[in-house]
User: What shape does this take?
Amino acid sequence: MTVIAMTSARGAPGVTTTALVLTLAWPRPVLLVEADVCGSSSIKAGHLRGEYDHQLSLINLALAHRGGALNLDTLRGQTIALTDDRGRLVLPGLATRAQAASLTETFWESLATLLKAVSGHGVDVIVDAGRLGMRHGPDPLLRTADLLAVVSRTGLDDLVAVRANADQLPGTEADAVMERRGLLLVGDGRPHRANEAADATTLPVWASVAWDPLTAERVNGRERVRTSLTRVGNSRLIRSGRAAIAELADVDDRRRRVLGRPTGHPDARVGGSVGV
Assistant: This one.
C-alpha cells in the first residue's frame, strides 16, 4: 500500500479539496491526514459541517508522542469516519495555528514511521501537508512518502512559483529517477496544458482534477454529502478524481519497478473498518 503526500508551492491551489476528493473516490481503505500547520481543520469545519467532536485532533498525537504513547491505537482513537462503512477515515488537523509549536521534528518523524506501519496494514494514506516551507511543517512526511505530489493550478504565476520552489522539495536526487515527485494539476488547460506545466516546472505531470467549483463547494460542506456520494458521484470533479487515482497508481507501479518491489493495486472494494 502507499503513502501519498500533497503540498503546494504558494497560496491555496486546492490541496485540501483535492486530497478530500481523492479520499472519497479511493477504491480501497484509506486514511486522510490533515497535516497543514495553518490551523483550523478544514475537514471538520467544512465537509463534516462542524458536527463531530472538536477534541479529536493531530495535536493529541503530539501530546501522546511527548508521553511516549504514540502508536496505532492512539492514532485510531483520533480518527473520524468520512463514510458510513468506515472505509475512509480522517485524522483532523490543528484547531489553531498556535498549536503548531508543539509539532516538533521528532514528532513528525515518529508519525511518518507510524503512517508507514498503517500502509503496511493494507490502508493507503493521503497526507494534506499544506503549503511547502511552513514553520513547524511536516517535512518528514514529505521526505518519507512514497509519492510527493505538488498541487498547482495552471496559471503562469502558479507554475513559476512551483519552479522557484522545486529545489526545496524534501528528498534526494534519486527521487527524480524514481519519479517520486510530480505535479497534480487543478484545472488542466485553464489556461495551460499538462505538457506546458511540465516544461515550466521541470516536474512530471502525474494527473489532474477538473475545475469544478460548484461540486467543490458541495463536497466542502455546502451540502451534507459525507455519508454518500450519490449526489456528486457523477460530477466532473469526482470523475476526474477517480481517473487521477488510476494515474497515481500507475506512477507508483513504475516507482516500485525501479526499486524492485512488488507492483499492482488491486481494485478492492472499500468495506468494513479500516485497520489502523
Remarks:
- The first strand starts at residue 3 and ends at 8.
- Confidence is low (pLDDT under 50) at residues 268-273.
